Amino acid sequence: MQLTIGKIANLAHVSADTLRYYERERLIKPAAKSAGGYRLYERDALRRIRFIKQAQECGFNLAEIRSLLALRASDAACCRDVRHVALEKKLQLEAKIKAMKAMSDALSRLIKECSVDSESLDDCPILAALERSNGVKRRSR
Amino acid sequence: MKVELFYTPGCEKCADARDDLKAAAEQTIPGIVWRELNALDELDYAVKLGVVTLPALAIDGELVFSTLPTSGQLRRALTKRKKG
User: Fold this and answer.
1) CATH code for the domain of A33
2) How far apart are CA B21 and CA B76, in angstroms?
3) Which of A26, A87, A122, B75 is deepest in the core (most CB within 10 A)?
4) Which ipTM did the prediction report?
């Protein structure tokens, strides 16, 4: 039995707009169109949509998901190919976490420096530190 | 001097190139330390060096190649580093 876009979107817990977006990104395509021009999907498309959602939650972008779907469909590919992609993605995520942690630590240091609530903006140590890091001297008002 | 090759287990590309690269490194710098690191086991160290693609190659703890170099590229990088 074929499913309309509304029905399959509902089953996959995504919006119909999301499915149209996936289609534009060449991640899914309807099996057919009805006489009235409505998209119709095979039930198997549900697995594909769930795969895409899960991969997005793991941090893969749509281009990477397209590659994963191609690997999934390839007879020549095997599990280690997918593991390689997953490991590179993990390295990228860990690098981002490291960079964000450094940013968070830098903000902690600045927040600690700013202990007086009523100081004027000209004396604000956070603004001063941010400007120092750009090599810009603050103008007095 | 030390060369570290980060690889994914089962990576055929790494296995094919490894022997040539190792030989090139040993010819260029006799006594060079050659380490092969499974990125799965050495994830923290790989992140520390900035490895985000595999295979990758570091020299003396610095990521120098984010894809496998040719033997010639590795030789040149080692020679340049040796000269300081």
Assistant:
1) 1.10.1660.10
2) 12
3) A87
4) 0.80
Which of B6, B44, B47 best tests the A interface by mutation, with the highest count of A CBs <10 A? B47
Structural domain containing residue A38: 3-61
CB contact under 8 A, A83 and B46: no
Examine residue B55 and say whether the peptide bond preceding it is cis (omega within 30 degrees of 0). Answer: yes
Residue with tokens 């964000």: A100
Residue A39 lies in a domain: yes
Could you tell me how many CB contacts below 8 A there are between chain A and chain B?
34
Q: Which CATH class is domain B2-83?
A: alpha beta
Residues of B in contact with A84 (CB under 8 A): 8, 10-11, 54
Give residue-wise pLDDT tens across range B36-82.
999 999 999 999 999 999 999 999 999 999 999 999 999 999 999 98
pLDDT in tens, B2-16: 999 999 888 777 788
Residue keyed to tokens 């450094």: A102
Claim: this prediction has a pTM higher than 0.80? no
Per-residue pLDDT tens digits for A34-76: 999 999 999 999 999 999 999 999 999 999 999 999 998 888 8
What is the average per-residue pLDDT within A6-10?
A: 96
What is the rounded CA–CA span in Å between residue B45 and residue B48? 5
